[in-house]
Amino acid sequence: MEPDTLIREYLLLGLRFDRIEEGYVDSYTGDQALRQVVANEPAPDPAQLARQAQRLLDVLPQVPFDGSFTAARADYLGAHLRALACAGRKFAGEPVGFVDEVRDYFDVTITKGDPDRYRDAHAKLDAALGGTGPLADRMQAYRSGEEIPPERLGECIEAFSSALRDRVRAEFPLAARETVKYEIVTDKPWSGFNYYEGDHRSTVAVNADVKLQMSSLPRLVAHESYPGHHTEHCRKEAGLVEKQGQLEQTIFLVNTPQCLMAEGLADLALYAAVGPGWGTWAAEIYADLGLQFDAERAEAISEASAALADVRQDAALMLHDEHRDVDEVAAFLQRWLLVNDERARQSLRFLSSPLWRAYTSTYVEGYRLLRGWLDDRPAEMSLTRQFARLLDEPLIPSSLRAA
Question: Residue 190: its pLDDT value, please?
């Protein structure tokens, strides 16, 4: 099989999954004739899709390398075909253990976190919050006090987007026509979502139901837009697709290694764009809007809370690997994340979604892997240059581990 044929078959296969589960194709900016081919086909059979993915995996070692089709591209396609083979089996009703599902989807192996680490995080939060009374009550009072008034949310989003865009464009050039449009939505299982439309355009939906706090909004805008998802899509479209002709990059599929890389990158976006002292930077923007923001406390609480990231993955393992009762898992989330029942149930909605149930691992493992890779960079390599590799190259988790 020639490389062009392999990639065409991969794109068709990915598009077929969107007919099994709408939303499986997060974005597709390639040849629309392929989408029409799939639309005109009979409804796909998940088991057949799994066999198609396995067939492409089997022929992959025989696909010849040339000037553009390299071992790195073959490794990328192989990791994504393994993810699609697993997804086909899952959709066909074949039992797949949760740990195996995450491994095949995202190219990582997960384990439960350490409660002692969570206790240490609680001790740091206790010190940062101050005051007396139950820690959960104080944490919820802090969050409530930080909630952005709904009528101010739109202008706050635009302010941070503008400030981050200016920073990012200076470090990571983008096409002059690139743009992000923001929409406020409700009744979603996530806090924010980037819909990449191609041609350097995105729509970012922000879920007002989550009641965004002042300390979390800068991270969300960086995550979804600059230099997170939108920036990555634009840079890869300009470089990998338009300049190098890597058409496999025109499709972005849920529950594949590219998601783990993308979410890890996006969760590190504020770290890469602003770094330590982000609280002071954010306070200046809020001050221009007439809002007060305690930068020092926000940074301390954010740093301590980062050690609780594994809690959501633990909850997913409890639900899907250990088959624990939903109420028990909700109580676990309330205990360690210091949230109320409503917030815990919102998290459970995401963890229980057939499409998204494994996705929490992209944030937990993606951040862990990519943060380590960024911080272990060669001494002569700047953080900006190392982060640019994530924006520009088709890396997968196993390639970072090998490095």
Answer: 78
Give 170-179's long-range contacts (Cβ < 8 A, gap of 24+). 171/227, 171/273, 171/384, 171/388, 172/227, 172/231, 172/235, 172/384, 172/388, 172/391, 174/200, 174/231, 174/234, 174/235, 174/238, 175/200, 175/234, 175/238, 177/201, 178/230, 178/234
Q: What is the pLDDT of residues 310-343, one digit of tens each?
A: 999 999 999 999 999 999 999 999 999 999 998 8
Do 63 and 144 fall into the same domain?
A: no
- Nearest-angstrom CA–CA distance, 28 and 233: 11
Q: Which two tokens stand for residue 275?
A: 């770094």
Are 176 and 224 in the same domain?
yes
Q: Confirm whether 104 is domain-assigned.
A: no
Domain that holds residue 268: 115-402
C-alpha dist (Å) from residue 269 to 151, 278, 316, 322, 391: 26, 12, 25, 33, 10
- Whether residues 143 and 78 share a domain: the answer is no
Question: How many folded domains does the chain comprise?
Answer: 2
Q: Decide if 167 contacts 273 (C-beta within 8 A).
A: yes
Query: Torsions phi, psi of 28, nearest 5?
Result: -145, 120
Structure token pair of residue 400? 């970072």
All residues at 6 or more sequence positions from 166 whose CB lies less than 8 Å from its CB, including other chains: none
Is residue 261 one of the residues assigned to a domain?
yes
